[in-house]
Amino acid sequence: MDVFFNSFVTVSQAVLEIFVLGLAGYILSRFNFLSQEGLDDVGKVVIYFTLPALIVSNFLGKADLGAVGTWWLYPVGTYLLITVSVGIGLSVTGFLEWPERRQFAALIGFPNMGYLPLALTATLLAEPARSEAYLVIFLIVMGLSTALWSLGVGLISGKFVNIWGFVKSVATNPPLIAIAVSIVLLLLGWEVYVPDLVVDTASFAGSITVPLIMIVLGGQLANIHGASKGYPGAISLVIFLKLIIYPALALLAIYFVRPPELIGFVLLLESATTPATNLVIIGRHYGEETGLLNQGLFYSYLCALVTIPAFISLFRLIYS
User: Fold this and answer.
1) What span, in angstroms and rounded, lies between the C-alpha atoms of 52 and 56?
2) How many CB atoms lie within 10 A of CB 207?
3) DSSP-derived 3-state class of residue 275
4) Taking all residues of the chain, what is their mean pLDDT, rounded to a whole number?
5) How far apart are CA 2 and CA 64, in angstroms?
6) Which of 36, 74, 175, 287 is buried most deeply by CB count within 10 Å?
7) How far apart (Å, rounded) are the C-alpha atoms in residues 12 and 308?
């Protein structure tokens, strides 16, 4: 018990460090020091510049695809797991109206596999483990991005997503493009095509990504407006499934399979993370009422302050 408590305190302090950055973004946005337009601009800097730079610098500067085995299994496996999770979300919510039922399935099925895990990894791991964890996270994000802009858009909007719309969404996704290009360059032998100066500059630019990510996340939560209608039953079920059952199942699998500790850490982190904030953006874009999405995100982030440190501490007990 003492080992768990000491680990919980240590991890909680690390998690609080990144959530304080999120709180800064929340306060700046809530009190209009950072407008919605300004928040969008910061988000664009992350999406179009610093995050792709971080991806390129980690893939080309330190990555070894062979170190993660059959690397393609991560994006493919992620897509399949998201599809199954969405199905579970739809099957357990017969008590909701159809629009809310679709939103519940999105909250359960599409986790924040990029932003929050990157921030937690940056805080909890030191080099070289941090860069190796980043690589696995980026590969997982490949599966998430393709699922989000195909299955996710169709689920939230209630509309059929045509092939052209899916291709356009994926082809204009800078982080996904950066991952794909980096993998191709790695397979071809990037040293021949890319000067060290480019990788070093990308590393320098990418170093500010995590603080900016948390400020954007905090600002997005500040701009989430709850609906007059509450969903206490649905929100409780989201938190129970997403933040307790899913990471508990992952922890159980890790206990029996015992993958390499770094891989196990990332997989647990991905299973314990909150729903993706992009779900609200998609819902608003298609003119959907996002009351359940708003409340689900807000309360999930509050509960994650306790659940994430708890599961990481349990994970550390397994490998101690």
Assistant:
1) 6
2) 14
3) strand
4) 87
5) 37
6) 74
7) 8
Q: How far is it, in rounded angstroms, from Cα 170 to Cα 20?
A: 32
Joined together, the tokens standing for residue 205 give 């630019």
Half-sphere exposure of 308 (CA within 13 A, CB side): 31
Dihedral pair phi/psi, residue 275, rounded to 5°: -65, 160
Quickly count: other Cβ atoms within 10 Å of residue 134's Cβ.
Answer: 24
Higher pLDDT, 2 or 114: 114
Pick the CATH number of 2-318 from 1.20.1530, 3.40.50, 1.10.3470, 2.20.200: 1.20.1530
Please tell me the distance from the alpha carbon of residue 55 to that of residue 77, in angstroms, as a whole number. 20
Q: Collapse the DSSP code of 66 into the 3-class scheme (helix H, G, I; strand E, B; otherwise coil) and give the result.
A: helix
What stretches of 63-128 show up as alpha helix (H) in DSSP?
Answer: 73-91, 98-109, 115-124
Query: Does residue 276 surpass a pLDDT of 70?
Result: yes
pLDDT tens digits for range 140-154: 998 998 898 888 888
CA separation, residue 289 to residues 103, 228, 282, 285, 300 (Å): 10, 11, 11, 10, 19
pLDDT of residue 309: 94
Beta-carbon contacts of 236 under 8 Å, excluding residues fewer than 6 positions away, are none
Write the CB contacts of 168 (distance below 8 Å, at least 6 apart in sequence). none
168-206 confidence digits (pLDDT tens): 777 778 888 898 888 888 878 777 778 888 889 999 999
pLDDT at 89: 94
Whole-Å CA distances, 55 to 76, 134, 136, 142, 202: 19, 8, 11, 12, 9
Report CA-CA distances (Å) from 90 to 37, 136, 211: 35, 29, 35
